[in-house]
Design goal:
The structure is a homodimer of 444-residue chains. The first copy, chain A, is an alpha/beta fold and 444 residues long. Helices cover 26% and strands 28% of the residues of chain A. In chain A, the strands form seven sheets. In chain A, strands 3-2-1-7-18 form a five-stranded parallel β-sheet. A five-stranded parallel β-sheet of chain A has the order 9-16-10-11-12, with helices on one face. In chain A, strands 21-22-25-24-23 form a five-stranded antiparallel β-sheet, sandwiched between helices. In chain A, strand 4 and strand 5 form a beta hairpin. In chain A, helix 1 runs parallel beside helix 8. Chains A, B: InterPro entries: FAD-bd_OxRdtase (IPR050260), FAD/NAD-bd_sf (IPR036188), FAD/NAD-binding_dom (IPR023753), FAD/NAD-linked_Rdtase_dimer_sf (IPR016156), Pyr_nucl-diS_OxRdtase_dimer (IPR004099). Chains A, B: Keywords: FAD, Flavoprotein, Oxidoreductase.
């Protein structure tokens, strides 16, 4: 059997590796446009901020490493066509167009950065950050800049804005919506983070689309906002999200939903022998009970695990998602899972909220840090979302809440749960418990 | 209504505070032998090691603070009798014996340190550590010592041994059993911790009971082990656990089990209007489905919450326990929940184990630390225990596993769960997932 995988990102390459562990015989080919494979795009901002010292550090494996596992990775290869009746793809490498037959095809085509409509977007110094090469180019360009503007205040946008600040640039972070991290945080929690970014010297411009980028000698120099104000911008990063790449899926005849390719819980598309994983597919939301996009590396990796099982003839299901996330910017760690209050309201779910400022350690223990926790429950008290910001120990608490939401626990149930305690590492009553107790009180 | 609470530790004082929040009218009296109330005994080792600078720091509230809440705390008061027919207690304060009537009586009498049978245990310089005064006396004595021996290598024993080392003493930590932390860790995991303690310069003596303490001029000088070897000991700490204090419970006519007072899930004893919480009661084990003792501060605090609800006429249940714990010694954080493999085997439960060494952050991220995880499942793959040791981020992972065990998840289910990821704070596949995948493989 020959499995052909289009795309060398987390979804594609993990499918290849997992499948090889399950089946030593199957022929596996991975085709990617990129000139590298198996690196961590999530780590690019941390290389820019010099927290990680080199782009080389974030490359995990080479083409030779895959060859040793009998996985054929073809770099700088563009797949241009799919014929799902013939079970054949067309690809171009070094200008030569060829075809390849498959028994099973995996579309792991990811997403392309969304470019918002604005004048001057083609000027030199305007970048997206998706690949390692993008990262390298940005780093090089930034070294000759005094100012930078990042548009889009999602995770990547914030991380990159902070990195530029660490590089010594004058930095503007702007977001069309009236708050940062709109997908994962409510406005009140986002504000804690915004205040921190401002404290770190970043100009944060909210609720203002950019209408134009102005240049000199073909190089970007300034950004103009809707209200006419301007910001210095010797470089501009478009961190305005990605859209699923659907061209090949459409050629293959795969059904697509509102945002991306439709797959079942075994990662099969609607076309026989064509599968898909990663940023190019839709996921099923565990809370909304409808489709959503989950463009997270962890989602791609978990989908790849399921797909490898499917291709190896084993039974495995990809579960509905909660889109749990975490990030760290400077000293602040922030994370979220499930629905925000805003999103619940948009979906006509009555939200009951508990919000507390607790501590990361016993009150009397040195270096106890404030921990802000917000828990969102539905009208029955079932937990449907959580947001946490603190200088430490956020990620694992998000995981606990992910499990609580998956198990459909109520705030009442969680408030009686056991939490491990020692003065150097936690409070005798955990911040999560204090938060769900706050929610519980509202049901009295 | 008058509620009389005997004991001012976590169980007693939390019952008082929680009850006051629920009922402004009820009369609340707390009687304690101690000369302080509302301090954190778990923090005493960290004051000894100077991580916390003063014993004053770990006192949370004074008698006046409680008076302000209309809670009457009587210090240095010994309750000597209970007549549950008359609903009356007898107590002695400043040599004067008096009686007090109650409508509801709460026994939060805690435990007394177990003193193992050995010669010389009455020598000066032999201490137990239970109260703040014990802590102060130990600190004062230690300042004139060159060597110290701690017997009992549970959490408190280890924390105190480490504290003495930080004070510059020659330290011996000894344990009758062949491993440290026998209640929570399997021998292989305990060894990681033992190696670290040895690396820190602590002499660890395992599998050797002390037969005799030798003194000079009435002061302890040496400990003699069963095999005849000796260790220097200018002071000795008995950290050999506590036994529930049952005298008053027996006077009241409460039924006791093998170890402690029997209570139902609303914290009522078998005698009408007599309740009990904390180290003096038995809990129900969620896994073994039989009684156990859970002498943890967090258990006392959670029981107090339930009892306050009961006393206020509200419905609340105290859930079966898993005895989740965490501690930090020097740079190492270690935690556990549920059954160890050893304990499972003693209870004829067939255990299937996954053990991995992963990392606390992405491999390429600076300061990623090794994280040792051991997961124990039963023959169906249901998770029944977990042990973790690392330099960071242990406690919250124990909490996630506590929830997984409470929900009776299998290793297969947990391996498909979402975990939040960002390179500075976690691995793309969480160490817990890697561990449960290891277990899952054994079922193929």
């Amino acid at each position: 059997m020959k499995v052909v995988i289009v795309g060398g990102g987390a979804g594609g390459i993990s499918t290849a590796s997992n499948l090889r562990k399950l089946d030593e015989e199957v022929e596996i080919v991975v085709l990617t446009r990129d000139n590298q494979v198996s690196y961590s795009p999530c780590a690019i901002p941390y290389v820019l901020s010099d927290r990680i010292h080199s782009f080389d550090d974030i490359v995990m494996r080479t083409v030779d490493d895959y060859k040793a596992k009998n996985i054929d990775v073809m770099l700088e290869t563009e797949v241009t066509g799919v014929d799902s009746a013939k079970k054949q793809i067309t690809y171009s490498k070094n200008g030569v167009v060829q075809t390849m037959n498959y028994d099973k095809l995996v579309l792991a085509t990811g997403g392309s950065p969304f470019v918002p409509p604005m004048k001057g977007v083609d000027l030199d110094g305007v970048f997206k950050i998706r690949t390692l090469d993008d990262g390298k180019q940005v780093k090089e360009w930034a070294e000759n800049c005094k100012s930078a503007l990042v548009t889009g205040a999602g995770l990547i946008g914030i991380e990159i804005a902070y990195a530029f600040k660490k590089m010594g640039l004058k930095v503007t972070l702007c977001e069309m919506l009236p708050q940062i991290v709109p997908r994962s945080l409510d406005p009140d929690m986002a504000k804690i983070l915004t205040d921190y970014l401002i404290e770190e010297g970043i100009d944060v411009v909210l609720g203002q689309p950019i209408t134009e980028l102005k240049g000199e000698d073909g190089k970007v120099k300034k950004a103009v906002f809707e209200d006419g104000t301007e910001a210095d911008a010797d470089m501009v990063i478009l961190a305005t999200g990605v859209r699923a790449e659907l061209n090949l899926a459409k050629m293959a005849g795969c059904d697509c939903g509102r945002w991306a390719i439709l797959v079942n819980d075994r990662m099969a598309t609607t076309v026989p022998d064509v599968y898909a994983v990663g940023d190019c597919v839709e996921s099923y939301s565990a809370i909304l009970r409808s489709n959503t996009v989950s463009q997270l590396g962890t989602t791609a990796v978990r989908q790849a695990k399921t797909l490898a099982q499917t291709l190896a003839g084993k039974r495995s299901r990809f579960n509905p998602v909660l889109n749990s996330m975490v990030s760290k910017v400077g000293k602040l760690e922030f994370g979220a899972v499930g629905l925000t209050r805003s999103f619940a309201q948009q979906n006509s779910i009555k939200a009951v909220v508990g919000k507390v400022e607790a501590l990361t350690r016993a009150r009397y223990y040195p270096n106890a840090k404030p921990m802000n926790v917000k828990v969102i429950c539905d009208a029955d008290g079932t937990i449907i979302g959580c947001q946490i910001i603190a200088e430490e120990r956020v990620a694992e608490r998000i995981d606990t809440m992910t499990l609580a939401i998956t198990q459909e626990l109520t705030c009442f149930e969680l408030s009686n749960m056991e939490f491990a305690y020692a003065p150097p590492v936690s409070m005798v009553t955990d911040p999560l418990v204090i938060a769900v107790e706050e929610v519980s009180k509202k049901f009295n």
